[in-house]
Design a protein that fits this description.
single chain, 303 residues, mainly alpha, two-stranded antiparallel ribbon
Length: 303
């Protein structure tokens, strides 16, 4: 993905290791994944002649089996294992689909345990899953419905982002018009006032700060990635090419023969899950189910 960042001149926003998602890092990362995913899909459907685009739309795994170009394999695997899950996670939140969010946390657990340098991300997903799965079946339905909240009744936001936004509104009230605003903190019309505030900001153009739609300015980036993919990979992905020209150094390297974590992370995820490889920063082989059982017994419900 460093190659894509270079094509878009975003090396200062997107780099190999992002230490955190503070400030604008989350926005940069989300926009980059959406642009990369859309650019790749447009390239596969509109530009690639072989294999046929209709096959990609019908069965992407069969399509992948026909691809012999290392660069083509990499971009397809990126869409399957990174780009599509990121967008699916976001859309599930925006549509308040709690069951899909639960599945995405399960997938995130495996990805974070094998590839992420932030070990807390593993436990965040695991604690979330434990809360959802171990609750009473009737409560699970409530959790699935309440995982996201909407101010406008149309676009949902993750509950923690919603709480952060409401806290921000409270802070603004605490510093302006104290005499009048302090009474509004406890009014029965608070929900209506928050709705009006969010609706006004959406209509006025500034936005409420919780919506992450697909801005118009990103279309140029999608077109740029599509053009660069045509120049780099061509339009026939059935041609045998063992070197991956999208490697971050600019030199084509084969997928085999290197470290799977770097060259074929889609394999490395499941190697870690089934104790065939150590996860990032770990020095022992631990299967995913053993890891979960140890965490629940030793941390959540210690005996």
């Amino acid at each position: 993905m460093c190659t894509f960042a270079g094509w878009l001149h975003k090396e200062k926003q997107i780099y190999e290791t992002m230490n955190n998602l503070e400030h604008d890092n989350a926005k940069h990362a989300l926009d980059f994944h959406r642009v990369s995913t859309c650019g790749i899909i447009c390239y596969l459907i509109l530009d690639v002649k072989k294999p046929r685009p209709s096959l990609f739309l019908r069965d992407h795994w069969t399509y992948l089996s026909c691809v012999r170009h290392a660069g083509g394999i990499v971009i397809i695997m990126y869409v399957i294992y990174a780009g599509s899950p990121v967008m699916r996670f976001q859309r599930a939140i925006r549509c308040n689909k709690g069951k899909i969010i639960q599945l995405m946390h399960a997938y995130s657990f495996h990805v974070n345990r094998s590839l992420s340098h932030k070990t807390k991300s593993v436990y965040i997903s695991l604690v979330t899953l434990t809360g959802m799965v171990c609750a009473h079946p009737k409560l699970q339905e409530v959790l699935h419905m309440c995982g996201c909240v909407s101010l406008l009744g149309t676009i949902f936001a993750a509950f923690d982002r919603m709480v952060e936004y409401l806290n921000l509104l409270q802070q603004k009230r605490a510093t302006a018009f104290k005499g009048y605003e302090s009474q509004l903190h406890f009014t029965e019309y608070l929900r209506a006032l928050v709705h009006v505030d969010a609706a006004w900001k959406e209509a006025d153009g500034s936005g409420s700060g919780i919506d992450s739609g697909f801005p118009a300015y990103l279309y140029n980036d999608v077109s740029q990635i599509r053009r660069k993919l045509v120049e780099t990979l061509g339009t026939d992905l059935t041609v045998v090419e063992r070197g991956n020209p999208l490697w971050h150094t600019g030199n084509a390297v084969p997928l085999e023969g290197g470290i799977d974590r770097e060259r074929m992370p889609w394999n490395y995820i499941w190697q870690v899950a089934y104790a065939k490889a150590c996860g990032f920063g770990l020095d022992s082989l631990v299967a995913w189910n053993t890891f979960v059982n140890d965490f629940i017994d030793g941390h959540l419900f210690p005996m």
